[in-house]
Amino acid sequence: MIDKTMATIQKLRGGYYTPNWIADYLWCWVNESRPLSVLEPSAGDGSLIRPIMEGVIQPKVCAIELLKSESEKIKQRFQSTENVSVINSDFYEWYSQYHGDLFEGMVSNPPYIRFQYLSEKQRLIQSDILKRNGLKSNKLINAWVAFVVASLELMAPSARVAFVLPTDLLQVSYAKELRQFLLRRLSELSLITFEKTPFTDLEQNTLLVLGQLRAKDDSNSDTIFKHVAVKNKELPRLSEVDPADPPNVNADKWNDLFLTNDDNRIVKYIVAEKSVAFSSVAKAEVGVTTGANSFFSLTKKQVISLNAKDFVTPLLGRSVSVEGLSYSSQTQENNDKANRKDWLLTLGGNNYQELPSNLKRYISEAESAQINTAYKLRIRTNWYKIPGVWIPDAFLLRRIGQIPRMILNEYDAVSTDTFHRVRFIEGVNSKLIIFAFYSSLTLMSLELAGRQFAGGALEVLPGDTNHVRLPDINYHRGIGSEKLNQLDDLLRKGLYNEATNYVDCILSLEYGASYEPDVTKRILQILRSRRIN
Fold this sequence. Notes:
By secondary structure, this protein is α/β, with parallel strands linked by helices.
């Protein structure tokens, strides 16, 4: 099923066990409907079963667990009751063979397993689950998506369900169809999000999903939707929470869930009337995928020792390797002095026999160390020749901390996939676009377009730039160097709010932008503070 050399058993199983206070809360919700049968499809050590068995009235529980060692723990833990049936099986296999009665309730913390770690049989079952329920299947989809869909198939009408899910539910494009599926199948849907993830050893943020299946005669009514953002362990009584309008069911992401209805209406107005699409002036693609950065990224000293100066290209490999607005000759010189790996070995157009002896020895030593056996290298005709190397106009940082960054390429550099490569549409002024990128409107749109991770990181992929907006101005106009220098100076000093204020002011006064920066700055602050804090 898996290559255990590539990931820990915990990650491959996808299991991160649920804290007691969350387990108690989930069961409290489900138990309000007094179910006689409950499914726990990824039981782990039984943490979600514990509160069920502590009640006065105990329903029948069917617990599915992949790992035999964990299954034995559950049996031992609940040996005093006959109400817990433990099945040591892969959930997908059990599901494909199950023909019993539908369950009246469910609690679940589905496994977070990437597609590449699933067996071929699991992939086929997962694909069948999704297609049968009207969802598309692709290689991006994580196991938890099909897990949720399959679990709901096994629920009786009006059953209550409670999940711990990654916030990918709100933030990745492939979860769009799952959100639509949930709104179709559930008469009630409540989302509880956390300022800090309850799973401290996870990079992924989590949320709670609590729902009730539609009754037999209910197929067309609107879903009662609720959302609560909580601090620490202050979980709400859902009966005391007022329903809200659900986010746009057709939206690729639900990041706007954290804004009020009024702010969402403002954002939609600004996007429609006061901005233009980033994709109308620029296109983004992933950076160079080397397959082995340790081999292909070289310091200046290595370039000299390998006699490789005719076979390298300036490289932007890390965010710390560039400050300000541009990657210049001075930037390269500073990185050389810091002994950074700022040169990319590019041998695409070279014959091996014509390479310097030192460079050929470097390649041979890498082969002896089996560097060339990595998947992305062994599928190449010549493993040491990186395909798709081209020089972009600018770089867009992929994973963002305090502030997104777009860097003008003034030294014919390339980048690893830490940065995306940006090409500008012919005729536009690249410097003006770079300047406007730091407006509060654009930074706000990036917060809504990206995917958040625990720890406050924001990831923006090339496809996300389709939802990034720029102020609606004429990007064929020029911009003075003094304005760029002022912005560059503010960014280098880490004065990000001042930098945004400066850009908003210049675009409003001198370029006719009319997007109400006081509003966009306020909404930006809400989104950024929630992510970083």
